[in-house]
Amino acid sequence: MLRLDGVEARYGPVQALRGISLEVPEGSVVAVLGANGAGKTTTLRAVSGTVRRSGSIEFAGKPLHGGPEAVARAGIAHVPEGRGTFTELTVVENLRLGAYTRRERNLDSDIDRVSKWFPWIPDRAQQPAGTLSGGEQQMLAVARALMARPRLLMLDEPSLGLAPMIVREIFRIVRELNEREGLTVLVVEQDARIALQTASTAYVLEVGRVAVSGPSDELKENESVRRSYLGY
Ligand code: ATP
User: Fold this and answer.
1) For 142-155, how does the pLDDT look when each residue is reduced to its tens digit (9 = 90+)?
2) Rounded to the nearest 5°, which phi and psi values hold at 199?
3) Cα of 134 to ligand 1 centre, how many Å?
4) Is the pLDDT reported for residue 192 higher than 80?
5) Distance 188 CA to ligand 1 centre (A)
6) What digits encode the pLDDT tens for the residues 14-38?
7) Which atom of ligand 1 is nearest to the CA of 45?
8) Residues near ligand 1 with C-beta < 6 Å?
9) DSSP letters for 3-38
10) CA of 38 to the centre of ligand 1 (A)
11) Which of 84, 204, 208, 210 is least buried, going by the fewest C-beta atoms within 10 A?
12) What is the distance between the alpha carbons of residues 108 and 119, in angstroms, rounded to a whole number?
């Protein structure tokens, strides 16, 4: 569904991506792992058109061009690092914003649909998003992305700053969205352990390049991946 070939990106003098190639097959969960500064976030930014890049990116068989709005309209939803929740707006206002690329005005059935995944949402609909817990804000960010009815969901470090139990709950929901709705997911994670449990395939980045990639089960058995990223 998504294919990157030789993607490069820089921030002024800093070359963040040095030729990234990766594939996300339709219906799969793919993880991008790596240490701080390896280029994980920039990889997602290159796809969503929020950083200038060269190289080729294809989505659903067509070249992907343009900025964030064009990419969102093409069917890609990006939950950025730090979640991008509008803290002053209510939960339901955040959800409605998630559907901004769609013409549909009556979003009530979509709100019901995403609330099935996050049953606490209806009770909190009128609460300012900034007063939610960190875990709830991360879930709201995912719910908001689902309002766009994406074909591909990109998640940037959903575990950031959250307790292990909440992280497991978020990844459980991601797994079920994939299994039950066939949603394709590209997830960037520092927590390699949980990412490898969820994804079928993973790419490990090192200073802007893919250092190792393969099926998650094989990577879990790989000595150097285990030592560098799994800590055992
Ligand atoms: P982290 O896990 O810490 O978020 P990452 O793997 O997501 O790391 P990126 O955020 O993609 O890494 O950063 C890749 C490189 O680009 C790093 O060297 C970083 O310092 C640099 N970089 C990222 N954003 C900017 C920016 N806005 N301006 C300048 N350099 C940047």
Assistant:
1) 999 999 999 999 99
2) -85, 150
3) 23
4) yes
5) 13
6) 999 999 999 999 999 999 999 889 9
7) 11
8) 11, 14, 16, 34, 36-42, 190
9) EEEEEEEEETTEEEEEEEEEEE-TT-EEEEEESTTS
10) 7
11) 84
12) 15
